[in-house]
């Protein structure tokens, strides 16, 4: 279908270049959803005067049917045609006939028609006219929606809407064109409403608010748009604004038309007032016929086909789960299985969960909580995954643990869902993840007995009985091989301590080696030097299980297994593993793949590896026991730190050419990862974020501290992107505390500057100012040029944000001097741009513009495309304050594009806020409201403080659009934010809410 979409010439490629010369001539295409145009292949055709285009449009819109001369005259001139109207129509037709292919414009029955014989369909023009294609796409979208395929339906509608190219029948005169223009504009709005309705059905409410705000501003009397906006705001947690939209609509309709809102809008208002639970469901439609099936997760891992024994436990747990659906008044059923590692807790829980699926028709959720590892899963992270599995959009998922848990329980209300929480650390980790209503149930597995999990049915899982152990072994190895060596098989399972995981590993090894007998395996396990001390009660049994695989490794493989287990990251890349082992990548891969085959290592993705948490613990125990000399453990982690630092430094240098920061970082012994372009460099940095930050926190000893701190500096994009900000902050705080404890003023100064940036980005300006002040003193004390330049620069930024512009000027001039002394031109450019904003706020506009342009010139000269965005951002703000709105928008729009390309989401949102400010200053409240909404949904530098500012601006924009109640709702939210933080902006908001009192 794409090959026949009519597009404007610059959107098309030359068709004759794509097709062999022997093929048929290029086809004709027409458009009416914009200017009336025609193409032959990629070649635009002249369509003549406005009246001639009006004739062409009238024929095209008849979709192949004949139009009489009288109908065409009426279409072009209405009731007052010129005296030579018939001759004019004939002239226009003759001219068009010469332009178009022969036989396309035909004369018949005293009139004319457009016919395309080689493209003929039922409509005569389907595929050759943008309108016909739009109609076909809309029809297909309706069918897809009726079939429940909302994703495809939305894509089809978006494709249809993309065919509009400005005003329909632009510059075409005549009453017929005017009527058709109104009809097609109305149809387009209907399609937009349908698509927005599907957006809300799929949970994209936060994203929809921005577009709906702009649409309601452009079409204030269109109640359907208002209804959709109310629902989108309500689902975004903005109930007051949703109700305010209704109040604004009621007042506007009364003033303009003297009518009340239609019943559907009134009903929605009442449902919002009553907090109707059905409204919170992303799939809940506004009309019954548009309902969509709720998301039904089915996340249980596969049950092992050779599950054996545990009959009494299966019966006991099944009975508890069945009580969840019985009318016994129970809130929910919770069973907690406890036992040592390898005893089969997960296998049993998964088996029971599969058996119980019929009692939980609304789905099953599963998560490995990684409680036995050093990095147990955080409940808020797990809740985020569960909420997405239950149908919540990313934008609808709150930040805090409490809010996520509340939304999770709300989504489960009325559903019957089974939740399997595997490998829990403790009851505190589990509690936020439990359902809160009857009909649901939770199965929990853990190495500890959860006596403090209120109301839980506790099950202590012990090792298998000899009979069960032998049954499991036989199922895996095969009846024939075991039957002839029954005693040897009993010896094997006894040597495994009757632990299911150990039995499974032993049996799998035997099954994979057809030349072995059971006696051979039994003899291997009888060697007490490898097995006896480990096959004891408690956790030692887990180590013995893994010793079966570890003892079979070649020395180089065993060394790889031990050393890779030292790294804390969730997984490790092949290149990073090569650094740990101090080997070439190819040789490293040859060592790791056999470890995957023996299940001692998992392949997380091509070129990435990870340990099961228990295997990682075992690997570390092996390293402590076997790695000689012991210093090799520290050397391995030092090599990993070097690898990450060198690679992150390379990313930093690619993103910021000429920045002197890289010259002040610790020298590494390894070259790091190679990158072919900027995109791959950023991909690496963001893909390795968790591993990088884990390495930082693992490398805070005396010999590695400075490199760990510099790794934070080199990977600062992780903080500014918003994706890894919290983990970055935690690593920075840990590094600061370690540096202070070790008395390393050089490292402490750098960590405090870095923490200042993190706190400032989050809007915690007082805390940031305290860190920056301490950093400045440490910089002077240690003589570190990086800290001496960056600390006062951060102090200046904070002073500007706190409206202390004179103080900020002093700091920033100090920073400029320090950067110049260090020959750090990018640092100088940053300080110049920051100073320009402060001077503009003090009405020193000319100097401010000059400084911003100086900063931009430095970035441009260095080729720093990424940081050029910051300069354009600063210049845009200064130009806006000077009243030069068009220039300001140009600069800010360019900055926005660069931030988007470089994945700086927080800067992206902040730039939307600045663009909104310019629109409002230029008397464009509709555009201001739209960009303010985008800033809210994206997030901004400055955290909650900036969110309060965005809400204030959004309220001003809505107020200018006549949406006074919604404006007040925004201001009330902003006031709560600013009062909570003690921000001075609270006074401004109070004045907006109560202008008489403020006066």
TrEMBL record:
SMART domains given in the database record: BTAD (SM01043), TPR (SM00028), Trans_reg_C (SM00862)
Gene3D superfamilies: Helical domain of apoptotic protease-activating factors (1.10.8.430), P-loop containing nucleotide triphosphate hydrolases (3.40.50.300), Tetratricopeptide repeat domain (1.25.40.10), Winged helix-like DNA-binding domain superfamily/Winged helix DNA-binding domain (1.10.10.10)
Record GO terms (molecular function): ADP binding; DNA binding
Gene Ontology biological-process annotations: phosphorelay signal transduction system; regulation of DNA-templated transcription
The keyword DNA-binding appears for this protein: yes
Biased composition (Basic and acidic residues): 9-18
Domain OmpR/PhoB-type: from-to ranges: 19-116
CDD domains linked to this entry: BTAD
DNA-binding region (UniProt annotation): 19-116
Residue segments, region Disordered: 1-23
Keyword set includes 4Fe-4S: no
Pfam families for this protein: BTAD, NB-ARC, TPR_12, Trans_reg_C
UniProtKB keywords: DNA-binding, Repeat, TPR repeat, Transcription, Transcription regulation, Two-component regulatory system
UniProt repeat feature TPR, residue ranges: 869-902
Protein family membership: Belongs to the AfsR/DnrI/RedD regulatory family.
Stated name of the protein: Tetratricopeptide repeat protein
